[in-house]
Specification:
Shape: globular
Order of helices and strands: HHHHHH
Number of domains: 1
Helix content: 55-70%
Number of helices: 6
Distance between the termini: 5 Å
Number of strands: 0
């Protein structure tokens, strides 16, 4: 997970900012949005911690095991929530990917996955394909189709936590971050 220093720090900043905005979204009046924002905040902050360059901090093996347990539990919780709708499946894939990367880091002798030269494992490749497709899809959703009239033609927004375009931008940022992290494995 530990790429070049400046790029890694930019990824840390992007993921931490995304996690912080998701915490703001947890103040929404819509219960489903609060729940989703909480999972996304966990993902953003977890990605930020995992992307810290190894030159700055090399976490002990126990930290990677803890990450794997936390994101494994998040994956199980999301799997349970997926019974009510397929919109939870992306969060399930994300939590699984985080647990998978943490297990890979815990299993690596030096704590740095991807330095074995054995090529890209099948699971990593499948996750890369999924998140690359997700980034393209979610990026296309941010492009406005038609201008919204300035006189109430759009949805009523009550605060920063209820802005759907910002939530989509955060999901796009986390998708890009996930691609970057998977590429360094």
């Amino acid at each position: 997970m530990h790429g070049p220093g400046s790029a890694a720090w930019l990824l840390v900043a992007l993921c931490a900012a995304t996690g912080a905005y998701c915490l703001l979204r947890m103040r929404s009046r819509v219960e489903e949005q609060r729940r989703t924002a909480g999972g996304e905040a966990l993902m953003g902050f977890g990605m930020a911690l995992m992307a810290i360059p190894a030159a700055a901090v090399t976490p002990p093996r126990a930290a990677w095991v803890a990450y794997a347990l936390v994101f494994g539990a998040a994956a199980l919780r999301t799997l349970w929530a997926a019974r009510s709708g397929t919109h939870h499946l992306h969060h399930l894939v994300g939590a699984f990917a985080m647990a998978y990367m943490a297990v890979a880091m815990a299993a690596a002798p030096s704590g740095h996955a991807g330095h074995g030269g054995a090529g890209t494992p099948l699971v990593t490749g499948l996750l890369l394909l999924y998140f690359a497709g997700y980034v393209l899809w979610s990026g296309a959703r941010l492009v406005p189709v038609a201008p919204v009239a300035a006189t109430g033609g759009g949805p009523q927004v009550s605060g920063w936590g209820d802005r759907p375009e910002l939530a989509r931008a955060c999901r796009l940022a986390m998708g890009i971050g996930m691609v970057a992290m998977l590429l360094t494995m």
